[in-house]
Amino acid sequence: MQLCDAFDIPLLSLCDTPGFMVGPEAEKTAIVRHVARMFVTGASLTVPLFGIVLRKGYGLGAQSMIGGGFHASFFTVAWPTGEFGGMGLEGYVRLGFRKEMEAIDDPAEREEYYQAKVAELYANGKAVSIASVLEIDEVIDPAETRHWIMSGLRSVPKPEARTTKKRPCIDAW
């Protein structure tokens, strides 16, 4: 991201991410600190970022790939296969509805409740549902992807001529 920004090259993000892991084991690897660098870099971009969600667009991992959020990019579109959520939906149900599930004594009834919640979240997280509440710009036919990219590139104004460096350095990570 920094390299493209330093040389005024627009970014294309093809997003298919289930997010990034959190919790005690993931924190031992400092993943949150490393992923946070993507947010900082994405927030400071001056070049256009075009986002296309191919399949999974979950949580902060997806937002970091799209420059900090689905509204931050030049455009964000999704293929019909796009799925959205705050995290992996099965894990979300297990964590977010843990008390409700623990209150159900019958294992078969608990599993039925779990499956119903997962199905509900998948229905709500479909690309068409997300586009209907203006979280993304549009759901596109995959065959239209090249058209969207080229239209985006053609609509970007040429960067101003520069006599100094745009970025003092590029993070080596």
Question: What's the helix and strand layout?
Answer:
Layout: H1 2-6, E1 11-17, H2 24-27, H3 31-43, E2 49-58, H4 59-65, E3 75-78, E4 83-85, H5 89-96, H6 98-102, H7 107-124, H8 127-132, E5 138-139, H9 145-155
Parallel strand pairs: 1-2, 2-3, 2-4, 3-5
How would you portray this structure in words?
This protein is α/β, with parallel strands linked by helices and 173 residues long. It contains nine helices and five strands; from the N terminus they run αβααβαββααααβα. Strands 1, 2, 3, 4 and 5 form a five-stranded parallel beta sheet that branches. Helix 3 packs parallel to helix 4 and helix 5 crosses helix 7. The chain starts with a helix and ends in an 18-residue tail after the last helix. The mean pLDDT is 87.
Tags for this model:
173 residues, alpha/beta, 5 strands
Using the alpha-carbon principal axes, give the shape: flat
The span between the termini is: 12 Å
Q: Please, what is the average pLDDT? A: 87
| Residue share in β-strands | 15-25%
**SSE order in H/E notation?**
HEHHEHEEHHHHEH
The percent of residues in helical segments reads 40-55%
**Oligomeric organization of the protein chains:** single chain
Let me know the largest β-sheet.
5 strands, parallel
From the alpha carbons, calculate the radius of gyration and give it in angstroms.
19 Å
DSSP E strands, number: 5
User: Which segments are poorly predicted (pLDDT under 50) over 5 or more consecutive residues?
Assistant: none
Secondary structure category: alpha/beta
Q: Please give the count of helices.
A: 9
